[in-house]
Write a structure and sequence with these properties.
This is Protein kinase domain-containing protein. This protein is an alpha+beta fold. 43% of the residues lie in helices and 10% in strands. The strands form 2 sheets. The protein has a 5-stranded antiparallel sheet with strand order 1-2-3-5-4, with no helix packed on it. It has a two-stranded antiparallel ribbon with strand order 6-7. Residues 1-24, 134-140 and 310-322 have low confidence and may be disordered. It binds adenosine-5'-triphosphate (ATP). Adenosine-5'-triphosphate is lined by residues 167-168, 170-172, 175, 186, 188, 220, 235, 237-238, 242, 283, 287-288, 290, 300-301, 321, 324.
């Protein structure tokens, strides 16, 4: 399937029925809606993301479409292992745990058919094995319900913004420095427009439940969340700024510091990628790497992007905040199925930026940079003279077009350690 522009123009719009009386319009519209739904389900079965994209652009509500027995396009993809279409649907916010009239979720369908790759993909998006396969399949395990009480809910009245300030703006909302029970914290206020349906809030709660359990010295610590509107996420506050600003102020880093930072990032990523809930960051970039006063780095802003990403795409474009594109792996740009190796690709771009002192392909706009990398295999030129051959090799491996050729973060850490030992001698 040819890679298409993820924010491409509308493929076609339906003519407005301005002269028809209202009852004829609604009848016509209803018929059109039903036929669009059938078409959407059919293209899911054909594993055809381009056709799905065209229909979705005409009618965004199709993302929650289902047939009369409650089976969604994602159920169909899961059942027939249509990976490209499933990946597209998930990227565009399709409800991953929708249950059909037998109570089965897409993951239960994939499991019943033994589609391993599909299972992995659905789980990455929070898929749960729900239902009992009343169609005659073997029973699937039902995920335990979330506990009714939670220890992460923050009372918004306890958040004091009076002496706070906005410290950053992302596509999901503003980041504030605030005080919570006397402690400085960073609070991300999610744009109200991104949390206007109950399923988003449910997904949000589920995700926070996972994130709040994470603990690692190189991962920004989640402290809690407000699950009423506006949704808010509270993390520890890191006062030394982010890597983007640091590089802007200081230019390229000496090799030893770049290796030190890179090791911290690799350690944080090993933790995220290898826990019981494998977390793929998908938006690793210098702005999401926060510095500590003692020159250590922590990985921030992971986990929730998949919930708000599609909804925020519009805001993303409107605010011109397209910085993430520059670090984006080709398979994400092309809406293909992907795994933890997308973060390795982004890491290569960050390594490059730390050593060269300028963003990768800075001569191109972020979107153009991502497109050239994905479609033409273009890569930034390694110009700095200070690269030891091992570092050059590492960067080139990490930004391989073929994700299988990219090393894991465990391997990356080992290479960085051996480089550091070489430098010490
Ligand atoms: N815990 C924190 N402590 C201190 N500063 C933070 C913290 N979290 C975020 N920031 C600051 O806020 C900025 C914006 O963060 P945010 O994660 O919302 O935006 P982004 O990653 O640039 O955008 P997007 O979420 O759209 O990818 C960061 O680059 C950083 O400077």
């Amino acid at each position: 399937m040819e890679c298409s522009n993820p924010d491409g123009p509308l493929c076609g719009t339906e003519p407005a029925c301005e002269t028809n009386p209202p009852n004829i319009i609604s009848c016509k519209e209803e018929k059109a809606r039903i036929s669009r739904t059938s078409l959407f389900l059919w293209h899911a079965r054909q594993d055809d993301p381009s056709a799905l994209r065209c229909l979705l652009q005409q009618d965004p509500s199709l993302i929650s479409a289902h047939g009369y027995d409650g089976r969604t396009p994602l159920h169909i993809c899961a059942f027939y292992s249509c990976l490209a279409a499933a990946s597209f649907l998930l990227d565009h916010g399709a409800p991953v745990n929708a249950q059909d009239r037998w109570g089965n979720s897409p993951l239960a369908d994939a499991q019943s058919k033994g589609h391993k790759e599909m299972e992995t993909l659905l789980k990455e998006f929070g898929g749960q094995s729900l239902g009992n396969h009343g169609l005659g399949f073997r029973n699937a395990a039902v995920a335990p319900p979330l506990p009714q009480t939670c220890d992460w809910e923050v009372d918004p009245l306890e958040l004091d913004f009076s002496k706070g300030r906005v410290i950053g703006k992302g596509s999901f909302g503003e980041i504030w420095k605030a005080t919570w029970r006397g402690t400085p914290v960073a609070v991300k206020k999610i744009l109200p427009s991104l949390s206007d349906d109950s399923s988003t809030i449910k997904d949000f709660k589920h995700e926070v439940q996972l994130l709040v359990k994470l603990r690692h010295p190189n991962v920004v610590q989640f402290l809690g969340a407000v699950s009423s509107k506006p949704l808010m996420l509270m993390t520890e506050f890191l006062g030394a700024g982010d890597l983007h600003s640091y590089l802007k102020d200081n230019g390229s880093l000496p090799l030893a510091i770049a290796i030190k930072f890179a090791k911290d990032i690799a350690r944080g990523m090993i933790y995220l990628h290898n826990g019981t809930n494998c977390i793929i960051h998908r938006d690793l970039k210098p702005r999401n790497l926060l510095l500590l006063e003692n020159d250590h780095v922590k990985v921030a802003d992971f986990g929730l992007s998949k919930i708000f990403r599609i909804k925020s795409r519009q805001a993303y474009i409107l605010t011109g905040e397209t910085g993430s594109y520059r670090y984006m792996a080709p398979e994400v740009f092309c809406h293909k199925s992907y795994d933890t190796k997308v973060d390795v690709f982004s890491f290569a771009m960050i390594l490059y930026e730390m050593l060269e002192g300028e963003p990768p392909l800075s001569e191109l706009a972020p979107y153009e940079a991502a497109k050239s990398m994905a479609k033409r295999g273009l890569r930034p030129k390694l110009r700095a003279k200070t690269y030891p051959p091992q570092m050059k090799e590492l960067i080139i491996k990490c930004w391989s077009s073929n994700k299988e050729d990219r090393p894991s973060f465990k391997e990356i850490l080992m290479t960085l350690e051996s480089m550091q030992r070489g430098g010490d001698r």
